[in-house]
Specification:
The complex is a heterodimer of chains A (about 575) and B (about 180).
Chain A: E1 2-6, H1 7-17, E2 22-25, H2 32-39, E3 45-48, H3 52-66, E4 70-74, H4 78-92, E5 97-103, H5 119-123, E6 129-132, H6 139-151, E7 157-163, H7 164-168, E8 170-174, H8 192-203, E9 208-212, H9 214-219, H10 221-234, E10 238-240, E11 255-258, H11 265-273, E12 276-280, H12 286-289, E13 300-305, E14 319-322, H13 325-339, H14 345-359, H15 375-386, E15 391-395, H16 399-407, E16 416-417, H17 428-438, E17 443-449, H18 459-465, E18 471-476, H19 481-490, H20 506-513, E19 516-520, H21 523-535, E20 540-545
Parallel strand pairs in A: 2-3, 2-4, 4-5, 5-7, 6-7, 9-10, 9-12, 10-11, 12-13, 13-14, 15-16, 15-17, 17-18, 18-20, 19-20
Antiparallel strand pairs in A: 1-8
Helix pairs in contact in A: 1-2, 1-6, 3-4, 3-17, 8-13, 10-13, 11-14, 15-16, 15-21
Chain B: E1 2-4, E2 23-32, H1 37-47, E3 54-61, E4 66-75, H2 77-89, E5 93-98, H3 99-102, E6 106-116, H4 120-131, E7 135-140, E8 143-150, H5 152-163, E9 167-172, E10 176-178
Antiparallel strand pairs in B: 1-5, 2-4, 2-5, 3-4, 6-8, 6-9, 6-10, 7-8
Classes of the chains: A alpha/beta (about 575), B alpha+beta (about 180).
């Protein structure tokens, strides 16, 4: 069925036809016709942010916590420049997002008009695809295709740039939701030969490991369920990247913890020593592999990924399996069941014994303190006191983010929203707002650092306005902790510009925004303070004063191999020893 | 090796059987002829640090808005393979084919070569042009413009000789290339 309507109406109608209930945005000259249409309808809720970057991250948080596409709507020029960080972030983490932008009228494009920027040019490398709409006839097709491309294959951000005169023009709208405009159709099913070969390799494995990533979560709840079944079926140990946490429960018996630069001793050594590695929806990122030429030197590597360009990009693999993770695991389970492989039980028992020996090292142990709050302790308590609740966690970027990955156990997918690939400080608060608005009754906590939180602190105002009772739990060590850690370890302890001098009073700052501020600096009072934070049904800024100089360990220094980790409790290690060195005021 | 949008990839990669040395490869890329498609391809090369030696682009099918981009690039086989997959990931790209791996492709280039001079060198330029099957497309009493078509190496040799005969300036089209035989991309 077709209908006549304006370009601006088409935007709203497409959102409705795509099932979008919430969008995040900021009005401005070149997008006013669309905001005018928003005003005159009630099907789509618009959430006004305080800066366009916040709209992007909020859309990301909404997308990651729901598995649906996130939508942002902003104007031209400076708005799109502000949006670039969020687009690049969504691209790095493969998050489905549709960004709709206003542009100066087609007659003014190229004249350096007011608030004109080459939006498709600026965003080309940080989107999966983008369009400048030149004719009203093209608009419905492009809008629907944008949703299809954002959500299929390897998901990612797309952008549709709509000149203002096209928003005013009238044209024919058709709901072309299920029509493909381009030839983009990524393959989801891997060849049978690859599946059979993978089963053979896994059946013969003596020291196997599953290394999973965000691709499992992106593939959906079915892929997550199949992964858990697959682990049970094979009995293989499993580790995950930051992006994949929660796909396999941290309380599961085959769980080794996160791997990589701040991964566990057992996960990294198992990766190094394994004989068959099955990489599922991960991409051999440099934070995962450490030194490439020393990465898991003796293993056969199977790589399951929907994106062929991920294969052999940094690590050469023995068996690429290109397809959707969920589909591939389903096929693997069927092939494994049909083949009924006889596993080498003795070898696998010996492998688990070795893993238990690594686990016994207790690499996440830290020196407790009765006087000051250790950051690790703060996350452990946060986990203990929110366990069993319907909780979503977002983070900013830095030490606190890694401590969350290490000490907060995730048992479900889509529960951790964090900037993995791009490492965007300022991600957590707007992402928490997007998450909270998607899950109004749930507990949403943004774990932050005292430096990161200030990057997008203005979004606290958004949270207050939209009754999003997000809790921001700041591990305040009065430093750019991760930067300081690198300076201490690798730059002769020259603490160059990494202390947060002139820090605001976070409690009074919260109050100024109309939120609630809580401060805690004593371990004995921490539980009560966290309970209080959870009880308050309003946005909270929690200033958790932790020891200033704790290191995030274990750590594989950049350019080192998995078996060259720095460990926390290694008393011999002068460089990394200590932590509870200064009790904050 | 050919990458077709949406088609399932082979479980096995061909690189291992191929020489591992760095050399130049000719890629043929079939794309939708839409605004910005060239920028996407070129941006991919610069953004990921790949090298472009030569690039030509032109519409080849007006009714279906298809263009063919021919790119000459250099790298070891895994890098070339990665370039092909990255190209294949772009939404407007239909097919990517490596003509060098396909073997003995036809590669042709056109050049316009301006030389100026009098006397002996002018006669020599003309004799060489005849030997290379170059056509005279412009002439004055003290200059010629030659048009030469051929494999890039032949044009290189011709240009090298013209340097001795008063070469003034040069324009080359970049490569057009097709696989031999009856099948198409």
């Amino acid at each position: 069925m077709t209908r006549q309507m304006t370009g601006a109406e088409m935007v709203i109608q497409t959102l409705v036809d795509q099932g979008v209930d919430t969008i995040f945005g900021y009005p401005g000259s070149a997008v006013l016709p669309i905001f005018d249409e928003l005003f005159q309808q009630e099907e789509v809720r618009h959430v006004l942010v305080r800066h366009e970057q916040g709209a992007g991250h909020a859309a990301e948080g909404y997308a990651r916590s729901t598995g649906k596409v996130g939508v942002a709507l902003v104007t031209s020029g400076p708005a799109i420049a502000n949006m670039v960080t969020a687009l690049a972030d969504a691209r790095a983490d493969s998050i489905p997002m549709v960004c709709i932008t206003g542009q100066v009228p087609t007659t003014l494009i190229g004249t350096d008009a007011f608030q004109e920027a080459d939006t498709v040019g600026i965003t080309r490398p940080c989107t999966k695809h983008n369009w400048l709409v030149r004719r009203i006839e093209d608009l419905p097709g492009i809008l629907h295709e944008a949703f299809r491309i954002a959500t299929t294959g390897r998901p990612g951000p797309v952008l549709v740039d709509i000149p203002k005169n096209i928003q005013f023009q009238t044209g024919t709208y058709e709901n072309c939701k299920d029509k493909a405009l381009t030839q983009y159709h990524p393959a989801v099913k891997a060849p049978d030969a690859a599946i059979r070969e993978a089963v053979e390799l896994m059946a013969a494995a003596k020291k196997p490991i599953l290394y999973t990533g965000g691709g499992v979560i992106n593939s959906g709840p079915k892929a997550v369920a199949l992964l858990r079944e697959f682990v049970k079926m094979t009995g293989f140990p499993i580790t995950s990247t930051l992006m994949g946490l929660g796909a396999y429960p941290s309380s599961g018996k085959n769980w080794l913890g996160m791997l990589g630069m701040h991964g566990t001793f057992e996960a990294n050594l198992a990766m190094h020593d394994c004989d068959v590695m099955v990489c599922i929806g991960a991409r051999f990122d440099d934070r995962i592999t450490g030194r490439i030429d020393a990465f898991s030197p003796n293993s056969k590597k199977i790589h399951i990924d929907i994106d062929p360009s991920s294969i052999n990009k940094t690590v050469m693999v023995d068996l690429p399996v290109v397809g959707d993770v969920g589909q591939v695991i389903e096929d693997l389970i069927a092939a494994w069941t049909a083949r009924k492989p006889v596993q080498d039980k003795a070898a696998l028992a010996a492998w688990w014994k070795q893993i238990d020996a690594w686990r016994a090292k207790k690499c996440l142990a830290y020196r407790p303190s009765a006087e000051a709050i250790m950051p690790q302790y703060a996350i452990e308590r946060l986990h203990a006191l929110t366990r069993g609740r319907d909780t979503y966690i977002t983070t900013e970027v830095g030490q606190h983010q890694m401590w969350v990955a290490q000490y907060y156990g995730f048992d479900q997918p889509n529960r951790l929203m964090t900037s993995g690939g791009l490492g965007t400080m300022g991600y957590g608060l707007p992402a928490a707002i997007g998450t909270q608005l998607a899950h109004p009754g749930s507990l949403v906590i943004n774990v932050a650092g005292d430096a990161s939180i200030q990057m997008n602190i203005r979004e606290l105002s958004t949270a207050v306005q939209h009754n999003a009772p997000v809790k921001t739990f700041i591990l305040n060590n009065q430093h750019l902790g991760m930067v300081r850690q690198w300076q201490k370890l690798f730059h002769g302890n020259r603490i160059s510009h990494s202390t947060t001098d002139a820090q605001p009073d976070f409690v009074r700052l919260a109050e100024a925004y109309g939120a609630v501020g809580i401060r805690c600096s004593k371990p004995s009072e921490l539980d009560d303070a966290i309970e209080e934070m959870i009880r308050i049904d309003r946005p909270v800024l929690f200033d958790c004063r932790v020891v200033n100089l704790a290191h995030c360990l274990p750590m594989i220094p950049a350019g080192k191999a998995h078996n060259e980790m720095l460990l926390g409790m290694d008393e011999e290690n002068e460089t990394v020893g200590g932590g509870a060195d200064k009790v904050p005021a | 090796m050919m990458i077709v949008a949406g088609q399932s990839q082979s479980a096995y990669f061909l690189e291992e059987e191929l020489p591992s040395t760095e050399r130049s490869h000719t890629l043929s890329v079939l794309v939708d002829n839409e605004p910005g498609v060239l920028a996407r391809v070129v941006g991919l090369f610069s953004g990921r640090g790949y090298n472009i030696e030569s690039l030509t682009v032109s519409e080849i099918e007006h009714s279906s808005h298809m263009s063919r981009i021919t790119i000459v690039t250099t790298g070891r086989p895994p890098v070339i393979s990665q370039i092909m997959h990255q190209l294949g990931r772009l939404v407007p790209v239909h097919k990517v084919i490596n003509l060098t791996w396909a073997g003995d492709a036809l590669e042709r280039e056109l050049a316009l070569v301006k030389v100026a001079g009098k006397g002996e060198m002018r006669d020599e330029a003309l004799r060489l042009a005849q030997a290379f099957n170059a056509r005279i497309v412009d002439a004055t009493l003290d200059s010629y413009v030659f048009e030469i078509t051929g494999a890039p190496a032949d044009i290189d040799r011709f240009v090298g000789l013209m340097k001795e005969c008063g070469l003034v300036e040069l324009a080359r089209t970049g490569l057009a290339a097709l696989a031999r035989g009856k099948t198409g991309i």
